[in-house]
Design goal:
Blueprint lengths: L1 H21 L6 H15 L5 H25 L4 H6 L2 H11 L16 H4 L16 H18 L2 H11 L6 H14 L7 H9 L5 H26 L1 H4 L9 H20 L5 H21 L3 H11 L5 H22 L3 H5 L1 H4 L1 H7 L5 H16 L4 H12 L6 H18 L4 H10 L3 H27 L3
Helix pairs in contact: 1-2, 1-5, 1-15, 2-16, 3-16, 5-14, 5-16, 7-8, 7-9, 9-11, 9-22, 9-24, 10-21, 10-22, 11-22, 11-24, 13-14, 14-15, 16-23, 20-22, 20-24, 22-24, 23-24
Length: 460
């Protein structure tokens, strides 16, 4: 009963979040957040012990920062702390429904989607996965292609199939996260582009996308080159995503539905487009397969399948509190009180920079990556750096490209990024370990980004 109630609460949170976004926040987002936290309290006993400690630490750190801001100036983003990540949590829960249609009709496991198809369950009746370097390249290409549209859904769909055969190996994990985060630098369907458009309204989105495409291509080459030099013995046994019609139709169909919804309802957030698309696609396929019985299948997944996602959902809700605490401290100008005016005083920035050039952008990019490593999400640094840079009159396109590169590299290097939290909650890869694996790659790609910024400077 307790577990079933937790699943129902997740479904209610999903509904409230989508209604809030679709109706332009007629229902406050924090209402869905309250329901989400009720779910966490109910299912927290089912969370792995190591993740319980991390969740409590993250949440308490965020609450501490919120209290600090409240005491200093009476301003703290409490409602933001409760509801900031409900959109992302809703998207993860909605994408989870795709498990119901991930197995063909008539398959031995098709009648028990909530039990046999969860990540980690080995099904010997499944088709053999392709093996070798070609399979590796096709897997990364699939993540890059579909990830540009369906966001975090792509690495989830690809990694779920690989994880069903056992633990997700380091090679697959780090390669998928690197390619996926690099894709975020140019895709208009990521939160990074939305954040940059909000803070740099005069930017040319087409220019930024074209400028960042070479970065994605070079990141792909760097990842593949590292495999040839360091992991060639492992790549011979690498099990990749089977590229055939059946296994590609789900991400392809999801991409098509998202594009249609984006065209019909441009005011919706990207996360809502993904969530609604996943739910509609699942319902449509189940209706075609099972007729009226599809409602029972959906209901069974709500009470049995959704509660199994508690590990990842509670991490995101806790991360939302920490992010709100950081935004409260930064927006209130309290960083100098915490870390000293010599580091964060505005006069320091003014004395160091006389104009925003490619070199200035490279320095800003490096700082944003280091802050991401420390756990500060790029969305916080983007919104915080912009007011400090206004006096330098930066070229909008150069600043936008800098922010997009910081988003891609920062989320790759941050242990608190959504990508690493998903891989921790879903595939049992600690977020700090996943981030640590990516630091050498981030260092190399930072050098590539610096060169790209100097090239961009000549065209703005």
């Amino acid at each position: 009963m307790r577990v079933a109630t937790g699943g129902i609460l997740v479904a209610i949170m999903v509904a409230l979040t989508l209604v809030s976004d679709i109706t332009n926040h007629a229902i406050p987002a924090w209402t869905a957040g309250i329901v989400g936290w009720c779910m966490v309290c109910l299912l927290f006993v089912d969370v792995k012990k190591s993740q319980r400690y991390q969740t409590v630490f993250i949440a308490l750190a965020g609450v501490g920062l919120l209290i600090f801001g409240q005491v200093r100036d009476g301003h703290a983003l409490w409602s933001h702390a409760i509801g900031s990540n409900t959109g992302l949590v809703t998207m993860l829960a909605s994408v989870g429904f795709l498990r119901l249609i991930a197995i063909p009709a008539g398959h031995p496991s098709a009648d028990k989607p909530s039990a046999n198809n969860k990540p980690g369950a080995v099904d010997k009746s499944d088709q053999q996965l392709p093996v070798g370097f070609g399979a590796y390249i096709k897997t990364l290409a699939g993540v890059c292609l579909f990830g540009a549209v369906i966001n975090i859904s792509a690495p989830i769909i690809f990694s779920d199939l690989l994880y069903k055969r056992g633990a997700l190996p380091r090679l697959a994990s780090q390669s998928i996260t690197r390619i996926f985060t690099a894709t975020s630098t140019w895709s208009p369907f990521f939160g990074g582009m939305a954040a940059v458009l909000t803070n740099v309204p005069d930017m040319r989105i087409s220019f930024a996308m074209l400028a960042c495409l070479p970065f994605v291509g070079l990141s792909f080459l760097v990842v593949v080159l590292e495999v040839r030099l360091r992991f060639w013995n492992q790549i011979k046994d690498f099990k990749g995503y089977p590229v055939n019609f059946y296994n590609l139709w789900i991400p392809a169909a999801l991409t098509m539905v998202i594009l249609i919804l984006h065209k019909l309802f441009p005011a919706w957030s990207v996360l809502s487009h993904i969530s609604v698309s996943a739910l509609l696609l699942t319902a449509a396929v189940l209706l075609a397969r099972e007729g009226k019985n599809f409602v029972q299948t959906l209901a069974r997944f709500v009470v049995e399948g959704l509660p199994t996602m508690i590990n990842e959902l509670q991490l995101f809700l806790a991360a939302g509190i920490l992010a709100a605490g950081l935004v409260t401290v930064i927006s209130g100008g309290h960083l100098p009180e915490l870390f000293g005016p010599e580091l964060f005083g505005p006069e320091h920035f003014g004395s160091e920079l006389s104009g925003f050039t490619a070199s200035s952008a490279a320095m800003l990019l490096g700082v944003m990556i280091l802050l991401a490593v420390a756990g500060v999400h790029p969305v916080v640094t983007v919104s915080s750096a912009t007011p400090l840079l206004v006096t330098l009159n930066p070229a909008p396109d150069l600043l936008a490209v800098c922010y997009l590169l910081a988003w891609g590299l920062g989320t790759c290097a941050s242990p608190l990024s959504g990508t690493h939290l998903v891989f921790q909650g879903r595939y049992e890869i600690p977020s700090w370990k996943g981030a640590f694996w990516n630091w050498p790659y981030v260092l190399v790609m930072y050098g590539v980004a610096v060169v790209l910024l100097h090239v961009v400077e000549h065209f703005v």
